[in-house]
Amino acid sequence: MKRSLILVLLLLFFKSAFSQEEPLNTVVDSLYREDQFYIGVTYNILGNKPEGLSQSGLSSGIHFGFIRDMPINENRNLAIGIGLGYSINSYNNNLLIEKNGNNNFSYSILDSNINFSKNKFITQELELPVEFRWRSSTPTSYNFWRFYAGVKIGYIILDKYKFSSDSGAFNINNLEDFNRLKYGLTASFGYNTWNIYLYYGLNNVFKDSATINGNPIGINILKVGLMFYIL
User: Fold this and answer.
1) Which of 150, 144, 103, 95 is nearest to 121 (CA)?
2) Are 183 and 203 in contact (CB under 8 A)?
C-alpha cells in the first residue's frame, strides 16, 4: 500500500513538473470535454468513533477511474460527469475483530497494554461517481480553475481484516458485518494539476449487527486528499 502511494505521488509530481505550455498552433475544438480520467490519493479518517476507538499509522486510499464529461451549456464550462472507478482503502485502528467457532464476529477495543504491530481492515471497491462540474476552461486553455461536487456510490467487492502481535497473527476475509453498499458526498477543487479532494460518507462502515457492549459501532468515513485529472 505504501509503495502504491509513493508511485502515485511520483506520477503526479512528474506530470506537474514537466507539463508543457500551450502549443502556439492550437487547434480549437469547440466540442471539447475535460477531465475524463482521474487518479488520486487520500488520507482516510474514521468519524463517529465509539469511546476508546482511535486510529494509528497511515490510513490511506488510492482511487482511479473514468468519468464521462457531458457539458450542459454553450461555453462548455458547466457539465455533468458520470463514471466508473476503483479504489483500495486501508484503515489502521485499535478495533479488534474476532471470529468464534460458530462463525459469529465479536468486536472490542484493544487494550493499551497489548503490543500489536498491525490491526487494520482493507477494502477494494467499485465506485460510481456522479458530479456537477464547473471550470474556467476554454477550448484553448489547458490550465484552469475547477470545482466539482456530487455523490459517489461504492460497493465493496473484496475486504480483509489483518491482526498481528507478539502472541500471533490472523486474517479474516469477507467480513459479513461490513455495509457492502456505500455512498457519500464528494467535492474537488483546485487549479491545473493539483486539486483538493473530499469525501464524506453518509452511511456507516458496519451494519447495526456489529456492536461493542451492545451498542452499534456506527463509524463513518471522511477522506481528504489530492485528485489528479487527465483528459
Assistant:
1) 95
2) yes
Tell me the CA end-to-end span of the chain in Å, nearest whole number. Answer: 26
Predicted confidence (pLDDT) at residue 53 exceeds the cutoff of 90: yes
Domain boundary assignment for the chain: 2-11+32-230
- Residue 194's alpha-carbon distances to 21, 79, 111, 145, in angstroms, are 16, 20, 40, 10
Count of alpha carbons within 13 angstroms of residue 132, beta-carbon side: 4
SS3 at position 10: helix
Is residue 16 pLDDT above 70, yes or no? no
Helix (H) or strand (E) holding 12: helix 2-18
pTM for the whole structure: 0.86
C-alpha separations of 94 from 31, 54, 117 in Å: 52, 6, 11
Kindly report, residue by residue over 85-144, the tens digit of the pLDDT.
999 999 999 999 998 777 788 999 998 888 888 999 999 999 999 999 999 988 877 789
CA count, 13 A, side-chain hemisphere, 75:
9
Better-scored residue on pLDDT, 204 or 18: 204
- What type of residue is 177? D
Residue type, 132: F
Q: Residue 24 in 3-state DSSP?
A: coil
In angstroms, what is the C-alpha Rg of the chain?
A: 21
Work out the percent of the chain whose per-residue pLDDT is above 90: 67
| AA identity, residue 76 | R
